Amino acid sequence: QVSLEESGGGLVQAGGSLRLSCAASGRTWSMTDMGWFRQAPGKARAFVAAIRWSGGSTSYADSVKGRFTISRDNAKNTVYLQMNSLNVEDTAVYYCAAVSGTLTYDYWGQGTQVTVSS
Fold first, then answer.
1. What is the mean pLDDT of each run of 10 residues along the chain (118 residues)?
2. How many CA atoms lie within 13 A of 65 on its CB side?
3. Suppose 92 and one of 18, 38, 62, 107 were both cysteines; which one would form an S-S bond, judging by CB atoms 3.0 to 4.6 Å apart?
4. What residues pair up with 6 in beta bridges, in sequence order?
5. Residue 75 contacts by C-beta under 8 Å, 6 or more apart in sequence?
6. Residue 79 pLDDT
7. Taking Cα atoms as reference points, which of 82, 102, 104, 106 lies closest to residue 94?
8. Which of 74, 93, 71, 96 lies closest to 82 in space, CA to CA?
9. Do residues 30 and 1 touch, judged by C-beta distance below 8 A?
10. CA-CA distance, 57 to 118, in Å (whole number)?
11. DSSP letter (8 states) at residue 37
C-alpha cells in the first residue's frame, strides 16, 4: 500500500502562484511514477502532469505547459507541482496519484482545493 497526502491548495488571484506538495508513505519503494490530476466542478478528472520516479522525466497536459512544473524529492518521497500564471480555469480539486507495480495509477490522495479568483 502507498498512502498519499496533498497539501498547499488555497485561494489565489489570477496571475498568482501556488505550490502543491504530495507526501508518499508506505511502500514507496514500489512507486514508478507519480502524477497530478484535477477535477473542476461538473467535469471529469483530467491529467495535469506526471514524473518518472527514477530519472525524473516529465510530461504535461497542453493546458499547463509552460506554467506548471512538476518535480520530486526522492529523499522525502514527495512530489511538487509549482503552478504559475494561474487563471480561473485552473480552479479545481487537485489530486496526487502514484503508479506502483502496475501500469495504472493505483493510489490516490484525498485532493486539495485550488481556487483562482478573477
1. 95 98 92 95 97 93 98 95 98 96 91 97
2. 6
3. 38
4. 22
5. none
6. 97
7. 82
8. 71
9. no
10. 33
11. E
Contact 12, 112 (CB under 8 A): no
Residue in 60, 77, 78 with CA at minimum distance from that of residue 68: 60
pLDDT value, residue 2? 92
The reported pLDDT for the residue numbered 48 is 98
Half-sphere exposure of 11 (CA within 13 A, CB side): 2
Predicted local confidence at residue 30, as pLDDT: 87
Residues 79 and 51: their CA atoms lie apart, in Å, by: 8
Bridge-based pairing state of the strands 18-26 and 2-7: antiparallel
Contact criterion met (CB below 8 Å) for 105 and 97: yes
**Structural contact between residues 60 and 7, judged by C-beta atoms closer than 8 angstroms:** no
Which amino acid is residue 96, in one-letter code? Answer: C
What nine digits make up the cell of 59?
510530461
Beta-carbon neighbour count of residue 33 at 10 Å?
19
